[in-house]
Amino acid sequence: MNNPENENDDHGEVFLDESDILQEINVDDEDLPDVDDEEGASEAEMADEPDDSMHIFTGHTDELYSVACSPTDASLVATGGGDDKGFLWKIGQGDWAFELQGHKDSVSSLAYSSDGQLLASGSFDGVIQIWDTSTGDLKCVLDGPGDGIEWVRWHPRGHLVLAGSQDSTVWMWNADKGTYLNMFQGHSSTVTCGEFTPDGKTICTGSDDASLIIWNPKTGDNIHAVRGYPYHTEGITSLAISPDSSLALTGSKNGSVHIVNISTGRVVTSLVSHTDSIECLAFAPSSPWAATGSMDKKLIIWDLQHSSPRCTGEHEDGVTCLTWLGETRFIATGCADGKVRIWDCLSGDCVRTFSGHSDVIQGLSISANKDYLVSVSLDGTARVFEIAEYQ
């Protein structure tokens, strides 16, 4: 056996064979000293090194849940999060930010009116605040729902605000006057998603009760309630309306995706492929395609003329949000692995991966000039990525 003194001599070379081993001790990598920069860097530090963003907004002090880019001002962004705050800030202007104060719970949803003049902030406190985007002033406070706000939407051509609540109701107000217009009752659980049709004539809402309801905005009447076979059997998580206002696309917790004819209330097709919860979906603005993203780690681009997948984008983790890049063939996805990816829907290839976030991406929005993609994450930051090359 070797001389024990040599074993403790840092400067002498010691050669051992298996018979010399008295005891094996498992040492955590983190307990080892840094030998040099490359070997000593922890996995987390290595993972944090790349940051492809050109602007980072760090005004929040908690997880971020919502983001909206102004439809008229290419630099103006709104974000909301678990710190009960919203912020208005400008891309590339790190010294300018305006705090949207007054909410008493997480800011869960943000939406700009189509003319960009007003911003609605919805919160789990059950209240919606309307802000004048030119001055930052609070214009009015809209209340009524008995529980948290899940989403807010504007009428495509006016200052009417629609919101869905955890108390199973949907509410509509006139934001110019700050007045209540209608309450829509018919769901039996949280209203998880809702939209005006692009022509502004109809409202569609989806619920955790697995039903889609189509409403008349003026009268509050329930035109169609879509539930039961052959529709969803588990809660609806996401909803999109086709550009021509004729079809509603819905996804649910169990991975099912259905398309409903809005005028008849009938299920016209089912898009079968996903195996886990649908987190996001959207019709393509200018192609007969639709996109669905799921916790099964897949983005699927569907050929709606044949109700079949035309390409599938594989991710490292669940797909949490998506947005088409204008009327191009490109789509962006946000993922639970903290990455934002750009996909070419003709080839099915991932053409760009944006790194920078260290936690789940919760939302994506595109600037008015289509040059920037803004993402918000559970890591508490919003990041801006340049996407002008994908126009």
List the helices and strands and how they pair.
Layout: H1 4-7, H2 37-40, H3 43-48, E1 55-57, E2 64-69, E3 76-81, E4 86-90, E5 93-100, E6 107-112, E7 118-123, E8 128-132, E9 138-142, E10 149-154, E11 160-165, E12 169-174, E13 179-185, E14 191-196, E15 203-207, E16 212-215, E17 222-226, E18 236-241, E19 247-252, E20 257-261, E21 266-270, E22 278-283, E23 289-294, E24 298-303, E25 308-314, E26 319-324, E27 330-335, E28 340-344, E29 350-354, E30 361-366, E31 372-377, E32 382-386
Antiparallel strand pairs: 1-32, 2-3, 3-4, 4-5, 6-7, 7-8, 8-9, 10-11, 11-12, 12-13, 14-15, 15-16, 16-17, 18-19, 19-20, 20-21, 22-23, 23-24, 24-25, 26-27, 27-28, 28-29, 30-31, 31-32
Name the shape in a single word: globular
Radius of gyration, in Å, reads: 25 Å
**Proportion in helices:** under 10%
CATH architecture of the domain at 63-185: 7 Propeller
Query: For the terminal residues, how far apart are their CA atoms?
Result: 71 Å
Runs in which pLDDT lies below 50 for 5 or more consecutive residues are 1-16, 27-46
- Output the CATH homologous superfamily of the domain at 63-185: YVTN repeat-like/Quinoprotein amine dehydrogenase
Tally the helices. 3
Strand order of the largest sheet: 1-32-31-30
Beta-strand content: over 45%
Largest sheet: 4 strands, antiparallel
CATH names the topology of the domain at 63-185 as Methylamine Dehydrogenase, Chain H
Q: What is the residue-averaged pLDDT?
A: 91
* Class derived from helix and strand content: mainly beta
Query: What is the CATH domain class of the domain at 63-185?
Result: Mainly Beta
Q: Got a strand count?
A: 32
